[in-house]
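Incident log, support desk, overnight shift.

02:14 A customer reports that sequence design results differ from what the structure should imply. Their input is reproduced verbatim below. On-call engineer (initials T.W.) acknowledged and began investigating.
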């Protein structure tokens, strides 16, 4: 009696985890797998489908079933926002790159800046009336030619008017990025609250981030406040889930 698709998936999964099929490699053709393990094609398809659902492989036209890369870059937790970093010129995504042994270039970030009406979520975060004019600063961040995430920040007009935060040129908003700009305005960031959830991408997001079929997103909400509790930035981000590992180091509360 032949093995079931779950057991076959376990065999293939083990081969991927051992490195028999490294990232970017193509699994054997389905008829070859069927012949090797003496199962029918339907069983192979079910096994491969299970691996796709787990995010281990993806079908690529004219290539076959390709093993996905494991998370290539750390996204730091509290360490990415260390004041010592942005006060010396290293922005948050640059801190992630450095921790991952990668170089970062300011030009790997695009910017689109405009005044918009605050939607209810933005208004609640910034403490203004819904519909109030706020600055929106939308960025697409890449590693080389590959997009990694988007981040869109919102600011009160009076906090950032005339500063580099409303400059649409590519790259961070000057030396140290937006947090340094806010500090120069007497609004030094002191506390960051981040929340995350996962979901599947919209068609536009899949194109913008060049996502593989079936790849989920990690969606970020970030609120940044001064020591006095004034919110100086609210941000929404969308990250390609397979391009990051998420690392947090912190003392345990009493």
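02:41 Re-run completed on a clean worker. Output:
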């Amino acid at each position: 009696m032949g093995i079931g698709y779950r057991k076959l998936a376990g065999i293939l999964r083990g081969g991927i985890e051992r490195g028999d099929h490294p990232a970017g490699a193509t699994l054997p053709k389905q008829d070859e797998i069927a012949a090797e393990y003496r199962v029918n094609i339907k069983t192979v398809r079910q096994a491969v489908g299970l691996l796709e659902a787990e995010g281990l492989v993806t079908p690529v036209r004219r290539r076959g079933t390709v093993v996905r890369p494991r998370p290539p870059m750390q996204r730091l937790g509290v360490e990415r926002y260390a004041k010592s970093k942005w006060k010396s010129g290293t922005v948050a995504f640059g801190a992630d790159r450095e921790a991952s042994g990668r170089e970062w270039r300011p030009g790997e970030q695009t910017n689109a800046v405009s005044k918009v009406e605050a939607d209810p979520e933005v208004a609640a975060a910034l403490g203004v009336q819904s519909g109030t004019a706020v600055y929106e600063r939308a960025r697409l961040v890449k590693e080389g030619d590959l997009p990694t995430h988007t981040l869109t920040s919102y600011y009160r007009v009076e906090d950032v008017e005339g500063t580099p935060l409303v400059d649409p040129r590519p790259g961070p908003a000057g030396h140290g990025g937006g947090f340094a700009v806010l500090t120069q305005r007497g609004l030094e960031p002191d506390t960051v609250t981040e929340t995350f959830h996962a979901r599947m991408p919209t068609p536009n997001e899949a194109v913008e981030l060049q996502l593989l079929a079936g790849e989920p997103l990690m969606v970020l909400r970030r609120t940044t406040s001064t020591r006095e509790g004034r919110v100086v930035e609210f941000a929404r981000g969308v990250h390609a889930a397979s391009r990051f590992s998420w690392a947090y180091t912190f003392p345990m509360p009493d």
